[in-house]
Structure formats: structure tokens, C-alpha cells
Known about the structure:
Hypothetical Protein, Haloacid Dehalogenase-like Hydrolase, Chain: A, domain 2, globular
Amino acid sequence: MIEKITAVIADVDGTINIKGSALMPKTLAAINALHERGILFGTASGRPLDHRSLDKAKQWGLDFEFDMAIGMNGGDLWDANHEGIEHMMLLDKEYIDDICSFMWPLDCNVIVYENAYDHVLVKRIDKQLQQSIYRNGSIVEVVEPEVMAQKDTGKIEVQYEPELDEEIMAVVNANPSVHWDSVRTFPGTVEFVKPGLDKGVALRRYSERNGIPLSEIMTFGDMDNDIALLREAGWGVCMQNGCDAAKAVADAVTEYGVTEDGMGRYLERYVLV
Length: 273
């Protein structure tokens, strides 16, 4: 355990909460207690950053607004000490059509965030997308690949039923490129990003521009896209429900999973003592 904790930064889905759910009681209480002690708190997710993402603090019942937030798996960064959202390492538009060419024929949805949740370009409207629209108030437009490829983007998100994972990932793995990386972010979701982009990029940027040593930051995560977040921090904690790769780089693993208030229990036992 690190001696000094200045900030705690956590992934959202599968870490802070079950996707789309309220915070569990111990996690809510623990995060509020951290902030009362002067420890900064923020989130690091794959979602685009806009007012919807930043308003989660209020929706969850936290006693404060986020001090920072990472979105788009490291491509978006916001913090309370600087104006606006910084966008980093966009995927070049010329490769969007290439990715669509092998993903489009599959039983999946292909999604590009043209302007965060205010303009989302999609292949189709299916059950998963309808749930996202309900959760996030997304404004979506069904388009063809050539429309998605008109601008550089933070990521291409592909959603599918989890039972199709083997089929989908076989195609993804059969189409590697020096022009993009692919990462699984949630069961039934894989994303394509600019090579080298991960949550660790945004974490280092946050550390640098706010004068907070990485050694004083604690992070929580659960999936492949959290590996850099866990590895770069002074103390990285993987959820008990996390993937093996994330557990392998973490400094600790929670005793309980997200459905058992795992993050809150960990903070309660090891930090709020």
C-alpha cells in the first residue's frame, strides 16, 4: 500500500458499479468518506466525456462533483483545475472504413461518437443500443460506413451479444494493423483505438498537469482496458470479478466483486482505517 493517497480514480462498469446501476451502499459511503478526508476522486471509463458523464456524481448520490474524469479509454481528459475536455490521440478517419469493412458483415453494432452522446453514429438500433439510449440520453443516427469515416474519432465501439465473443474476436484478431489497437472493455464490447492510446496515457497527463505524482494515485479497474490504469498508478487494485490480465498487473485484488460492493469494502478495510 502506498504511504500517501492524493487521488483515487476508478473505472465505472464492473468496478464502481454494475453497468447502469446505482452505487452500492459501502462504495457510496467510502467514496464520500475519501473526499471528506481531502482525497480527490474521479472516474476512468471508455465512455465519451460530456455533461452526462460528469453529472454521474450527482446521479450516484455523491456529496461532491468529480475532481477529474477520463473518457474514451484515455482519449478524453477533464479536471476541475482546467477548462474544457482535452481530446488526445484520435483514430485517423482513413482507417475507420478499413475496420468497418470486416466488422460490418458480422452480427454486431458498430458505433462512432461523432460528438459524445449528442451525436452517435451507429450501424443499427438493437437492444443494447436502446439500453444505452435510455441510460445516457444518446442522440443516434443510423448510417453507412462512409459516413462514419468522415472525421477522425476517439474510438470505434463494437457491441454484440456475449455468446458471440469467440466469433467476433476471431475476426478482430484476424485483422491486426499497425494503425489501430483493439481492446475488450466489457463482456460483449470490443473497441478500436489509435495505437498506444490507453487510460494510462490520460492518467499520466492528469498527473503532469496537476502536479500529482503517480505514486500518490490509487486506481481501480476490472478489464483489459484498465491494465494501463492499474499499472501506471502508485497502487492499482483489480476487482475480484476482473479479468486475469488485469489481475496480473494489479498490486492488489479485492476480496469481493462488484456485485458484493467490492470497491467499497476494499476502501473501508485498507484505506479508511
